[in-house]
């Protein structure tokens, strides 16, 4: 029986030449494949190492930029070339880090251009960092759903209008006021400003049409327009966004109007401004400081420059002049006796005006502004809610009404006489009246322009200055704090646990209707919630002390008390001032200085948000920054992903 392939064929094939050649080729392939795998692994390891180095370098650059932005430091120098001795603070810090970090040093000393220190890369990195902060703010607002917008305007160093946009909302157990954006406003009118505001909100994906519950502005540009102001234009798109004028600025406007309406007060502040200018002069200032040290000891005081918008400085000016009036009187007397012609003449002129007609307005306005300053300071607190704003404004009205009483005026007059006696200020004798022709009949003036005869006696001052100032302030408060806003605020007070009207249905229904809440559901919720709250208090839980604490109590049951929870969030989201916007202007002045006046708008806004929201900026995840930087700018000469 012959050998079959099944029995001996495989052995015959194994001895064949073709099989042996195939086996040699296969062995060679396996050796080559093993060698190639080693090479691929080596290349992959080198690639990963390079990516790690690149990422660490970009993280370091981002960290340095964050440090400089949060501290408002200049980044660039006049010459950033390799052989420059003054490359700027950014490069100086990086070079210092490079002395201790080999990866950074390798990147900075690399011969190719991808060292990532150019001004373009700096701006792109700042853009990523600022967007991360804005994204965090936007996500908080979206989570809260309810928010309000606060906007104010100012001029930068180039006299260009800049608007500051701040969002107020409730998040994570607290009221937040977060700065979002600086935006230049070429057209400072209602149409242009409203378009800017809507654009910023849209660009961050915020649902403003239903979730924007209030808008607060400061400045005439926001409330004026050919057909309508910003509040009306925004209200056309966001039906629940009722308008709140900055309460702090309302108070300032009250005082501005009051002063303009009382000629004696306007002239009085003009004299204060002249006293400030006189004591600040180079020839007088050292003597002013020396007299204060001699008479009072301790640090001398500087008189304050007056401002139409920063009225706290007016109270400080009044306070300092009252406290230092004897020293000021002595300074003017000594300067009047010197032979320095210009200063001597000016001192004599000022001294002649510092009579009883100066002291009585000084005492009066110091008292009035002292009361209004307390309200102004409270209105500028970011944590202040509307119910407290109602309280402090009503308290001011009550105080001014009490000040208008006869006994209060007697106290003011006695204090003025006491101050005058301490400073040896006497009432000048009245000037002799010249006889006038009888032909003039009734068309004659009995006092000369600027003469203050009516202020030099108690009755005259009471009727021509004291009462008019207080009456005008009271009337302006009632006029400028609009009745609509007061009605809404009063209804929101029903969400303040300390108020007698707490959870009063009648008080809450007006706010509920304004924001399209279901009034029937709200009524049932209020009944049930009152019982739940009382049971909790009986078990030992402390009663909520504020609207914020009330929200914190409701949060675990927010699905059950939906309408009440929503109204509470609306209540704390409503702003009472634009003080946060005004604070952002301090950062604007530090960021955009004369030496950085050519800074573009995007860079200004990015630096602004990183500086103002520095706590958020410092907490950013730098690995996430590198990822965002790599995704946003994919055409890179070094790999980051």
From TrEMBL:
It comes from the Eukaryota. GO terms for molecular function: protein dimerization activity. Residues 546-614 form the HAT C-terminal dimerisation domain. Residues 64-228 form the DUF4371 domain. Residues 428-454 are annotated as: Disordered. PANTHER family: OS05G0311600 PROTEIN, PTHR45749. This is HAT C-terminal dimerisation domain-containing protein. It comes from Fundulus heteroclitus (Killifish).
